[in-house]
């Protein structure tokens, strides 16, 4: 599975702690992240993260490109709802693309935990069918 991690500045520590708690579940999957979030995760875990640019510099859009082509399976995006983001249009566009493509996305740790538990149980096997029958 292709899984992306995105976290706003005040949520980065929460993301690192979350990924640490579920590191065994993420092992064996292809992981992506925006720049600083991915660096912080790799510093604290043994996971390899394919890092894109920082979110405000286009990283959200780079992940969005994978969503648009249905190459992303799950996104954990810990948003800071109490802080204005200069790249809010990019964030809204990414979330809209997830809705269009039917990509599961969590925007808080409570929902992220539910999705990771589902991943751990194998509940995302339907995504393999999406990839298998994707028109080339």
UniProtKB/TrEMBL annotation:
Keyword Lyase found: yes
GO cellular component: cytosol
Reaction(s) catalysed (UniProt annotation): dihydroxyacetone phosphate = methylglyoxal + phosphate
InterPro entries recorded: Methylgl_synth, Methylglyoxal_synth_AS, MGS-like_dom, MGS-like_dom_sf
Catalytic residue list: 60 (proton donor/acceptor)
Gene Ontology annotations of biological process type: methylglyoxal biosynthetic process
Enzyme Commission number(s): 4.2.3.3
A Pfam family: MGS
GO molecular function: methylglyoxal synthase activity
Domain MGS-like residues, every copy: 1-136
Alphabetized UniProt keyword annotations: Lyase
Binding positions (substrate): 8, 12, 34-37, 54-55, 87
Protein family according to the UniProt entry: Belongs to the methylglyoxal synthase family.
HAMAP family: Methylglyoxal_synth
Protein name in UniProt: Methylglyoxal synthase
Organism: Paenibacillus phyllosphaerae
Gene coding for it: mgsA
